[in-house]
Amino acid sequence: MLLIFLTMVVGGCSNPRADYLSTSFNTRYNEEKPAISGDGRWLAFVSNRHGRQEILLYDLEQKTFVPLPYMPNAVYDSPSLSRTGRYLAYIASVQGRPDIFIYDRITKENRMITQGYHSWLRNPRISPDGRYLVFETARRGQWDIEVVDLGPFMEPDLPDGMPVDQTPPPG
């Protein structure tokens, strides 16, 4: 029921004659693996509407797509959004080698997190505040879970007006 409701609110029925440059939400193209921000405003998903597998970011409030960085010849997968959609974690595979990236929508910085990582990985998820990243890895010959602290200097993704804890770390 919920899926039907969201489809109607977001864009109505898909138009089979819509061209691949359409800015409407629903199309006749294959779209999958949706991720929604904690505040419900941003929707990221994998799509082939432009003739390649890519991640699209849609602003549900403004009903528009937001441009994302693009690497030619990459296959994109597994989007994950932080609380207000500031951070987008995803996999980009170039020549069959998957790496995890985090895109900061505010600074427009795209950062590879797994550079030099010597294992297969999949399903990245970013924490609501954007500080932690969790993903599956085959480093030990089986699928395990790893958690990465992106650092205390990562600006937290907090809703406007929410206080930031300014307490210095112990020690």
Question: Can you characterise this structure?
Answer:
With 171 residues, the chain is mainly beta. The radius of gyration is 17 Å and the shape is globular. It has one helix and eleven strands; from the N terminus they run αβββββββββββ. The chain has a single domain (27-149), classed as TolB, C-terminal domain (Neuraminidase, 6 Propeller), CATH 2.120.10. β1 and β2 form a beta hairpin. It has one helix at residues 2-10; strands at 31-36, 42-47, 54-59, 64-66, 74-81, 87-94, 97-104, 109-112, 121-126, 132-137, 144-149. A four-stranded antiparallel β-sheet has the order 1-2-3-4, with no helix packed on it. The protein has a four-stranded antiparallel β-sheet with strand order 5-6-7-8, with no helix packed on it. A three-stranded antiparallel β-sheet has the order 9-10-11, with no helix packed on it.
Give a short overview:
The chain is mainly beta. It has 1 helix and 11 strands, in the order αβββββββββββ. A 4-stranded antiparallel sheet has the order 1-2-3-4, with no helix packed on it.
